[in-house]
Amino acid sequence: MRHDFPRQAARFPASVVLALSLLLTPDLPAADSPSPSSAAPVAVPSTNCHNVFQVTPRLYSGSQPEGEAGYAELARLGIKTVVSVDGSAPDLEAARRHGMRYVHLPFGYGGIPANRLAELARAAESLPGPFYVHCHHGKHRGPAAVAVMCLAVEGWTPERGETWLRQAGTSTDYPGLYQVVHDWKKPELAAVGPLPEIAPPSTVVAAMVAVDGHLDGLKAAQKHGWGTPPDHPDLRPGPEAVLLWEQLRELGRHPDTTGRSDRYREQLKASETAADRLRQILSGPRSVETAADADAALTQLTRTCSECHKAHRN
Predict the structure, then answer these.
(1) Residue 158, pLDDT above cutoff 90
(2) What sign results for the dihedral spanned by CA atoms 84, 90, 94, 100?
(3) Are residues 166 and 264 in the same domain?
């Protein structure tokens, strides 16, 4: 049967037309319920940024832009707001020259603190898009931040967020990044203050405390044959070594490091190299031989860290 609703509608009172139109209109989501995008994230070719994905129509993920040309590429994508979750200071002037603003919300590889979760959600809700979200390499922290923003405003489920992390190449050696997505609950945003263009850098003291914490965890794992200590059931020696290595790498990029002596930087690099060696050993199958190699690597790492601390603790 042919329906001539528009032509016949004039014969009915306006109230009847409205009722019929509501009946014939497909169900729409509630105004305060985000409608998830059905399209999967797609890789975007780029010369001056790396690991770039268009995750949703208004959210891109990738690495730190490389120089003026990197920001020009973002401008051509239509980016309005750049969100950095990396520890290094963003290039505000380059972004401004290309008509973009920055928000700087850094966090580490161990997870995303509650205050940062709220700030990321507030940024996604209140700032103009499209957004480009980046960490240093665009594979771990940046994709985790994008997942949080999509959970907050794009209607994503935690399962979809975890699928995106795997697509982006986020390593399972950073279980804390996966955990914030898996355990997602939208944070309270009322207490979120102004979102900073440049966040104050974390102190070297805080970085050293984190290094010491990871070292203590690895020493506890060593005492239990490089397994999980019974009194620390969440500690996995492989990921713990990765987090220590990343912490030392971030410390090498800290603004304070560039002003230090050559000797300090050499000792810091030696610690990073020893941590990388331990990370590689613990990433493979375990045996008597690899346990001995891990013991030697941890001894070397402890020695280099102690020497650096003794010489430069002030």
Answers:
(1) yes
(2) positive
(3) no
